[in-house]
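call fold(seq) -> tokens
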Amino acid sequence: MGLENHKPTIAMVGLQCMYAGVNLSIRASLLQGMSSMVFVVYRQAIAFLLIAPVAYISSRRRNTSSCRMGWKSFWLIFLLALIGITISQNIYFEGIYLASSSTASATGNLVPAITFLVAWPIGLEKVQMGSVRSMAKIFGTLICAVGAICMAFVKGPKLLNAELIVAFDGMMGGGDEIWTSWLLGCLLLIGSTICWSFWLVLQVAASECYPDHLSLTAWLCFIAAVQSAILTFFIEPDPSVWKLDSNLQLISCLYTVSI
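ret:
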């Protein structure tokens, strides 16, 4: 009975551990020479192949044939795929490669804060300055932002070392390539969280236009795979980049699809 009450907490902790495994496996694959753009294409293509049959069967059983895609819903889904997957994941994976898996996990904590700041002006979040709940939201947003930025940009040579090295110091002090790459990786990861936050807000409008969520997810994966493939062909035209050189790269593609 006691364990039953803690199931939600256990599930959330387990999910975070799985996300940590995603970041570690992705970085390991990228360090082996796999293209981050190709990784996005494979991940979305595999996800589409897995979700599409389930979405089709589910749609037939629930008789949701009335949920048809119009031009408005198509362009909303196209925009969702572009912002939330094609742009967000490409710069996220490149940021992991240039920075680190732990930095990627830290900057992910910015998503609730940025989502709140985006949703507030358009009326999806209600804020009353005299309300304790609203003040808690604002205070929590500030803590998320400051904590994530500190973890991303402050790097020490070892844990509990008194002498901390800040990424900005490396760039100001002579343009060290390591620190420049680290800073660029952090900025890309932050850019990815901004895209992800906009993606979460846009899902409200997309769900209203196309309420079949399983089919919506399948369409998102398919359109994102096409967008990412076109982007890859233009930026990395060499056909050899599509080759998987190790079992780890294949396992990483399959594992990240399951999260």
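The CA atoms of residues 124 and 201 lie 8 Å apart.
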